[in-house]
Specification:
About 3% of the residues have low confidence. Helix 2 crosses helix 4, helix 4 runs antiparallel to helix 7 and helix 6 crosses helix 7. The protein is of the alpha+beta class and 743 residues long. It starts with 8 loop residues before the first strand and ends with a strand. It has five domains: 208 residues, C8orf32 fold, CATH 3.10.620; 105 residues, Immunoglobulins (Immunoglobulin-like, Sandwich), CATH 2.60.40; 109 residues, Immunoglobulin-like (Sandwich), CATH 2.60.40; 104 residues, Immunoglobulins (Immunoglobulin-like), CATH 2.60.40.10; 106 residues, Immunoglobulins (Immunoglobulin-like, Sandwich), CATH 2.60.40. The relative contact order is 0.07. The chain is 16% helix and 38% strand. The strands form eleven sheets. Strands 13, 15, 18, 19, 22, 24, 26, 27, 30 and 31 form a ten-stranded mixed β-sheet that branches. The chain is elongated, with a radius of gyration of 38 Å.
């Protein structure tokens, strides 16, 4: 165990293009977190303005290299801008952290350690912890500041929970050194070695390497945080020195201190509490365990976990093979849960870490590790991996998803258990216009997308996913949303579904990753729809109702089994209100099962094609047994020409007109005299002229024209009308209406 900070492993990463499953980009919608927000209370009081510290740091860093030749000149230069003792300590501490490198070869290699006296370190610029501590004390003495060197046991370097600390003649053998400084009559703890940087295993060069990186948390440290990795030892007795911890309840027993999980700066900066496993070594015969941590700052943080084999002590690196698919972490309110499945019996290390979501530049100095455990698994049965592919190790709803206003309803854990082959998941959208995509991946016999087994039912701003599971085993269910301004869909939530019984289904859903119901274009046309996007067609019959501007016109498609339905107009009657403000699609479906109803729209006088504005899922629980609709050969109701002439249909408010006892009257008002030609159709065939004369009587004036109709049979007839201003030579199409004869 050495004087360096806790070990991580560097790996060379290739730059990858941004994709919809990459969550590595910075987040800007979260509350801004500054480094001062994470200081312990006394440090906040001592440093009310962190900008001043940054000014001092810049001054210290820019000091001339030649000043190292004279300690007195160096101290004089550094302290001349200080306004108090705190600022003097800061300037000396920050200069040393910037100008002394850790002696990696002397500590980890075969090279003999250099001179670690204060003078030797100042000359060489290289030291281990003893040299850092000695030099800082010498600089403080020259500045007339009170500073003492301390030493003891540490949880740094290649330490892992459970490692034994060495004893020599009944005394604790120290492996680290640090300092305490007095400000305003009170002692505070500092560790220049760990504030200056870290020693990590670099896979590219195959050995330990030093990286200079400023760590603010080891200057005027939180005593609780400091004590988690520093155990001071009395120089005379060789035993613990609890008075040097500056805690209300200090550690006096090395073994008790050693048993605590190794906790790093973020654990204390974000006021975390361990909810499970209070000891650093976890022994288990189970193949799956859960570690829980409470964190009131959850909305600021993204958690990650890492499981690796644990190599034996004095082996570099201690962390062996990684098992990314054997760890699952998720947040629920202020609790973080890390589930671990062990790939085999043996020793492992589990690291829990965080990345602040919207952090200031200063906060980047914080270590990412929260805590680590050594796990001794004695189970004989290897566990299956968790389903892979969750973006950035995020399970459940991720932070961006939640901050945008999406909510998961009634599902506290990201694991859904099913014993029926079916599952449901409910979400709430921040706005009814929000869209989602969904993906179901099966891990039964390999990793593959399962199409046609997910239905995203939308009702206003609520979404219910209906999921059928064709195999036993585990699935990953992913919900994607537009979480940023780049127009892409990103992982918003990932769930594991455990299914113990394959579903028995008659028919799959029509494949659609998107939600059923209104799409993005729907709202651009200012169309209104209320109700569910999954519509049950009882006995094969249902209707879909929209409100719209009169100038918006619709087109529709009907699909069955992925193919466009050839007789769609006979199955769906598009009923438009006379003034064009409402539109009702009446459906009569000839087969039991699922239908896809696609809706398209455009403005009446707009050139170009229709735009897709949404699709609805129609589920017929039985086939329609009655009569189907006649074909409109276009659309029902008034044509553009009818509207342009300023004509109005009197009394009737829609495209369907009921003829009770087979009779009805259609009256049209006109601003000027018109000429018309009507036709009656039955079974898509026009009635012969003689038969039409018996059914139709026309009366007219300069301002109106009426058609009295008497139909010979029950059922559907079509009334087609052609006409224009009186005196014209051609008679354009005015529209057609459905006559429902009831005799």
């Amino acid at each position: 165990m050495g004087c360096s900070s806790s070990k991580t492993v560097k790996t060379k990463r290739k730059i990858q293009p941004t994709t919809a499953t990459d969550q590595s980009e910075p987040v800007t919608d979260f509350p801004r977190l500054n480094i001062e927000d994470t200081f312990w209370e006394e440090k906040k009081q001592l440093i009310p303005d962190y900008e001043r510290m940054k000014e001092l740091d810049n001054y210290a860093i820019q000091a001339s290299e030649n000043l190292k030749n004279s300690p007195t000149a160096l101290v004089t230069y550094l302290t001349k801008i200080a306004q108090n003792d705190l600022e003097k300590f800061r300037l000396l501490f920050r200069w040393e952290a910037q100008n002394v490198d850790y002696d990696v070869e002397g500590y980890y290699g075969n090279k003999e350690r250099g001179d670690n006296s204060a003078e030797g370190v100042l000359k060489s610029g290289v030291a281990v912890c003893e040299g850092y501590s000695s030099l800082f004390k010498m600089l403080c003495d020259l500045a007339g500041l009170e500073c003492e060197s301390l030493s003891g046991a540490s949880k740094g370097g290649d330490y892992q929970p459970g490692d034994a600390f060495q004893m020599e003649n009944g005394k604790i053998k120290t492996d680290h050194a640090w300092n305490k400084i007095k400000i305003n009559g009170k002692w505070y703890l500092c560790d220049c070695t760990w504030a200056a940087g870290s020693v990590d295993f670099d896979e590219e060069i195959g050995k330990m390497a030093y990286t200079r990186k400023w760590n603010e948390y080891y200057f005027i440290s939180d005593p609780e945080m400091f004590a988690s990795k520093h155990f001071p030892v009395d120089k005379d007795s060789g035993q613990g020195a609890p008075d040097e911890q500056y805690l209300k309840k200090p550690f006096s027993d090395l073994n008790v201190w050693s048993d605590v999980p190794m906790r790093d700066c973020p654990y204390y900066a974000f006021n975390m509490q361990t909810l499970s496993h209070d000891q650093g070594v976890i022994e288990t015969n189970e193949n799956e365990i859960s570690v829980k941590v409470q964190c009131p700052y959850n909305q600021y943080l993204r958690f990650w976990t890492r499981l690796t084999d644990l190599n034996e002590k004095n082996t570099i690196p201690r962390a062996g093979r990684k098992y990314s698919d054997h760890v699952l972490s998720y947040k629920n309110s202020d609790t973080v849960t890390c589930k671990v499945r062990f790939p085999h019996a043996g020793d492992f290390t589990l690291v829990v870490g965080v990345n602040p979501l919207n952090k200031s530049e200063d906060l980047k100095s914080m270590s990412h590790m929260v805590m680590s455990y050594a796990i001794k698994n004695r189970g004989n049965t290897p566990s299956a991996v968790f389903p892979s592919g969750a973006a950035h190790d995020v399970w459940g709803a991720n932070d961006e998803f939640l901050i945008k206003g999406f909510k998961v309803i009634g599902q506290e854990e990201p694991i859904i258990v099913s014993s029926t082959g079916k599952a449901e998941l409910e979400l709430e959208l921040p706005d009814e216009r929000q869209q989602l995509l969904a993906e179901l991946i099966s891990f039964s016999g390999g990793q593959s997308e399962v199409e046609g087994h997910v239905c995203g039912e939308k009702t206003d701003s609520k979404v219910k996913y209906h999921i059928t599971l064709p195999y036993e085993g585990e699935y990953r269910f992913t919900v994607m949303a537009k979480l940023r301004d780049d127009g892409k869909y990103w992982h918003g939530a990932n769930f594991i579904i455990r299914n113990s019984k394959a579903a028995m289904i008659d028919e799959k859903f029509p494949h659609s990753r998107s939600l059923w119901g209104p799409g993005e274009k729907f709202y651009e046309f200012d169309v209104k729809y209320t109700g569910s996007s999954k519509i049950i067609a009882t006995d094969g019959s249902c209707q879909i109702k929209f409100s719209k501007h009169p100038d918006v016109v619709f087109l529709f498609h009907l699909e069955k089994n992925g193919e466009k339905y050839s007789d769609a107009e006979k199955c769906v009657f598009a009923d438009s209100a006379t003034d064009g403000s409402e539109f009702i699609f009446h459906a009569r479906l000839p087969e039991k099962g699922f239908y896809k109803f696609d809706l398209f729209a455009k403005n009446r006088n707009e050139e170009g094609s229709y735009s897709g504005v949404g699709h609805w899922l129609l589920e017929a629980n039985a086939a329609w047994k009655g009569e189907f609709y006649p074909s409109a050969n276009g659309s029902w109701g008034a044509s553009n020409h009818f509207i342009d002439l300023g004509l109005q249909l009197v009394e009737h408010k829609s495209s369907v007109i009921v003829a009770n006892n087979g009779t009805c009257v259609i009256t049209i008002k006109a601003p000027e005299p018109i000429t018309t030609t009507p036709y009656l159709l039955k079974n898509d065939s026009r009635l012969p002229e003689e038969e039409k004369k018996n059914c139709l009587t026309i009366t007219s004036s300069d301002t109106s024209i009426s058609y009295s109709i008497k139909l010979p049979e029950s059922g559907f007839y079509k009334f087609e009308l052609y006409g224009t201003r009186k005196g014209a030579t051609s008679l354009p199409y005015l529209g057609c209406w459905l006559l429902d004869s009831k005799k």
